[in-house]
Design a protein that fits this description.
Length: 291
């Protein structure tokens, strides 16, 4: 059974969950999961765990600062209900700010800021997703939350689109940032493009497209070479190697005395990754997730 990671370059127009399911199907896996849901209109890096590698998702998420990088574009003079170009237009005008005005507004968005997520988003409101409420015509008003913007750079204009590069914390909504930049210069705007180029320890330069993988499968080409190992992305978590007897005990839920300092460990049997464990204050290795 396939087990590992695919670094997908998700295409625009595809739901992240749909992309994850289609990748799993290509590898004949029953389970899959992804890190960092992308809006359907967004493209770019979507790390997908296949098979038992899904057990590693929370550890991969915690192993990195989870800083994300995006390229995005915005267009002034139009506002939509979803805050992107795919939504229903609800306001339009002819005002376009100057480059100097936009450049002068950007510094206020650097550092920790309070951001109100879009009404059409996956945040929970009273136990329901905000987008479910919005689609049902109900009031969807997500509460503000703090996010961190590490870098926000204006890259220039391409016709009516203004292009930017963003480096931010997990939980930041690009569409909300576009709305807020426009408000800061007395304008309205919507998002015309979002492309994630980095997510945690995963980079677009290592990504493959779903179309590429499906064409290989249709041509009876083995795609397992594109599947990264289940311990990929676990960063600098220290390693503990077990002998065969200890590894069998560990995989069956047994505890192993290591005498090592407390903390999380990547656990191997020889050179084979068998899971994540934690060493307690007595030096005992206890399983957390096994593969």
């Amino acid at each position: 059974m396939a087990c590992g990671w695919i670094i997908l370059d998700k295409e625009s127009g595809l739901f992240s969950r749909t992309a994850s399911t289609r990748v799993a199907r290509l590898f004949g896996a029953r389970t899959s999961g992804h890190i960092g849901t992308l809006d359907p209109m967004a493209s770019g890096v979507l790390p997908i765990a296949v098979g038992a590698a899904t057990k590693m998702i929370p550890f991969v998420e915690d192993a990195h600062e989870n800083i994300k990088e995006y390229l995005f574009s915005m267009r002034f003079g139009i506002a939509t209900d979803t805050l992107d170009i795919t939504g229903r237009e609800n306001l339009r005008n002819d005002f376009t700010p100057t480059v100097d005005a936009v450049m002068g507004a950007l510094p206020q968005f650097i550092g920790e800021i309070s951001q109100i997520p879009p009404a059409y988003s996956a945040v929970h409101i009273a136990g329901r997703r905000a987008y479910e409420l919005a689609r049902g015509g109900m009031n969807a008003a997500p509460a503000p939350r703090n996010v961190h913007i590490y870098a926000l750079e204006f890259l220039g204009r391409d016709g009516s689109d203004w292009n930017f590069r963003l480096r931010c914390s997990r939980g930041t909504y690009v569409r909300a940032l576009v709305r807020d930049i426009a408000q800061a210069v007395g304008a309205i705007a919507t998002t015309t493009m979002i492309r994630r180029t980095q997510s945690g320890g995963f980079d677009i330069k290592n990504a493959v497209t779903l179309d590429f993988l499906e064409k290989l499968v249709n041509n009876s080409t083995d795609i397992k070479d594109f599947l990264k190992s289940p311990d990929h992305g676990l960063g600098d978590i220290p390693v503990v190697c077990l002998d065969d007897k200890s590894a069998d005990l560990y995989k069956n839920g047994g505890f192993i005395q290591t005498g090592d300092v407390a903390g999380l460990r990547r656990v191997y049997s020889g050179d084979v990754f068998i899971g994540i464990g934690r060493i307690d204050d007595t030096g005992m290795l206890r399983p957390k997730r096994t593969i």
